[in-house]
Amino acid sequence: MQLINRVRRERPVKLADSNAKIRQRVSCFLRSRHFATLRNIEIQVDRGEVTLTGSVQSYYEKQIALTSQSMAGVVSLVDKIVVQQKTERRDGVLQA
Questions:
Q1: pTM passes above 0.85
Q2: Phi, psi of 17, rounded to the nearest 5 degrees
Q3: CA trace torsion 52, 5, 77, 11 (10° rounding)
Q4: 52: Cα separation from own chain's centroid
Q5: SS3 56
Q6: Are 4 and 30 in contact (CB under 8 A)?
Q7: Domains of the chain as residue ranges with CATH
Q8: What is the pLDDT of residues 76-90, one digit of tens each?
Q9: pLDDT of 13-25, one tens digit each?
């Protein structure tokens, strides 16, 4: 079962902000961070509702991605980002 988080903010939205412009802003924001996994997050926008889908390596990276909800034109954010848990093998080596 996949958990989907929705974050909705009451904020005036500029009608001039198209889906493409919002997607570009969010994409530039994620690419400007220094985590390779953030560059692989899929971004979908529908009338200001941004959906982020993909996987990251830590909850810190996920929180960075979720801060894109404060970008201009974003009405709500649907979180479909999964944190890849690292497991430890019996020999003490971490696995992804």
A1: no
A2: -75, 110
A3: -170
A4: 4
A5: strand
A6: no
A7: 5-85 (3.30.1340.30)
A8: 999 999 999 776 656
A9: 554 578 999 999 9
